[in-house]
Amino acid sequence: MSDPHDIIQAPMITEKGSLLGEKANQVLFKVRPDANKIEVKKAVEALFKVKVLKVRVMRCLGKVRRVGRNAGRLPEWKKAYVTLKEGDKIDFFGGA
């Protein structure tokens, strides 16, 4: 397994993610495109000291961007929906 800091790239702070956090005790992360569910689960448990029940991953294609008449693509990325055990919580903003 790689370093947990390499697998978890960033938390995704969105409206949908905050709703999932309140209702279903889930957290969204941007992860490496070659990471699998087992690696994501171990990385989240190691970094945040929580118990992970379930991980769902989703591959997202990069958008097509144009500069003049040249078209290119942004890189592909992957996001993970991580379901935490009841009572566990990850607070990214450090609020009380």
Characterization of this structure:
There is one protein chain. The protein is an alpha+beta fold and 96 residues long. The chain has one domain (4-84): RRM (RNA recognition motif) domain (Alpha-Beta Plaits, 2-Layer Sandwich), CATH 3.30.70. It contains three helices and six strands; from the N terminus they run H-E-H-E-H-E-E-E-E. It has helices at residues 4-7, 15-23, 37-48; strands at residues 8-11, 26-31, 52-60, 64-67, 70-73, 77-84. Strands 1-2-6-3 form a four-stranded antiparallel beta sheet. The longest helix is centred in the middle third of the chain and has 12 residues, at 37-48. It starts with a helix and ends in a 12-residue tail after the last strand. The model has no long low-confidence stretch (mean pLDDT 93).
Descriptive labels:
single chain; 96 residues; alpha+beta; Alpha-Beta Plaits; two-stranded antiparallel sheet; globular
CATH topology: Alpha-Beta Plaits
Q: Count of helical segments? A: 3
Give the terminus-to-terminus CA distance.
34 Å
Shape: globular
CATH class identity: Alpha Beta
The amount of beta strand, in percent, is 35-45%
**Residue-averaged pLDDT, rounded?**
93
Count the E strands.
6
Please render the helix and strand layout as text:
Elements (H helix, E strand, L loop, with lengths): L3 H4 E4 L3 H9 L2 E6 L5 H12 L3 E9 L3 E4 L2 E4 L3 E8 L12
Antiparallel strand pairs: 1-2, 2-6, 3-6, 4-5
